[in-house]
Amino acid sequence: MLAVRARGMRAIPKGGCYSEVMTSRHQELDDNLRGEEAIVALLAPLTEGDPGAFGLQDDCALLAPESGTELVLKTDPIAEGVHFLPGTAPEDIAWKALAVNVSDLAAKGATPVGYLMALSFPNAPSRRWFTAFAAGLKEAQSRFGCRLLGGDTDRRWVRCRRPMVMVGGELSLDQLELSYSPALGFYRAPIQAIANGGVLVIDDFGRQRCAPRDLLNRWIVPLESRVDFLALQTGQKFDIPFMTMIVFATNIRPGRR
């Protein structure tokens, strides 16, 4: 978020603000907006009155602060599921995205007049949803005295099915490490990495080609710290998230092995 603060007694209204909005669900009530051009067409009217926005036709925006002023920068993104609930009205999302940044500028004694906005969608938003979102932005920027200067759009946060990997008696300790193929020149991920974010079932536990104690010792630190350490063939080690739920299944009585 950008704004300008005067070095003297009062704030000078020359500057801007930044907000980022990510949302992941939109009602498919009508045609979806395909491509960035369709989104820009709905947002371009929000730049009217500021030639530095170039009507959103340029990758950059131009800002020339007046003499005797300072730029105040602020960025505070909002994301669905964290800052607003699924199904929240698009007008309210737009208002909040701008308001959370403007409030911090106000605390600095700065007056916002422009903002950059990054939007991330998993799927193309519907025209109705985005029209309402743009209307919410228009109302918010009119209340706060700022204009849209530019930004970008992207596709992120797509829902996916959690992986489920099952192994049995064929499991060995070397399958828990990176496996390098010199002929192909690439690594094969260990099974816990393939199951990351999901469930790894160790079936017939106790009948693997390694002792149960060795198997448990290999994962005792990752299970506690949620971080696993792997090594390249060069010996260089690196860490990866260990967000795997491990399920042990066996019909062997405890104490038999």
Please sum up the structure shown.
This protein is of the alpha/beta class. The protein has helices at 36-43, 90-107, 127-144, 191-194, 212-225, and strands at residues 2-6, 17-22, 69-73, 78-79, 114-120, 147-154, 164-167, 179-181, 186-188, 199-202, 227-231, 237-241, 245-248.
Per-chain topology:
Layout: E1 2-6, E2 17-22, H1 36-43, E3 69-73, E4 78-79, H2 90-107, E5 114-120, H3 127-144, E6 147-154, E7 164-167, E8 179-181, E9 186-188, H4 191-194, E10 199-202, H5 212-225, E11 227-231, E12 237-241, E13 245-248
Parallel strand pairs: 2-4, 2-5, 5-6, 7-10, 10-13
Antiparallel strand pairs: 1-3, 8-9, 11-12
Structural overview:
- With 257 residues, this protein is an alpha/beta fold.
- It has 2 domains: 2-154, 60s Ribosomal Protein L30, Chain: A (2-Layer Sandwich); 164-248, Rossmann fold (3-Layer(aba) Sandwich).
- 24% of the residues lie in helices and 24% in strands.
- The chain contains 5 helices and 13 strands.
- The longest helix is centred in the middle third of the chain and has 18 residues, at 90-107.
For this entry, give a set of tags:
24% helix; alpha/beta; 2 domains; 4-stranded parallel β-sheet; disordered N terminus; 257 residues; 5 helices; 60s Ribosomal Protein L30, Chain: A; Rossmann fold
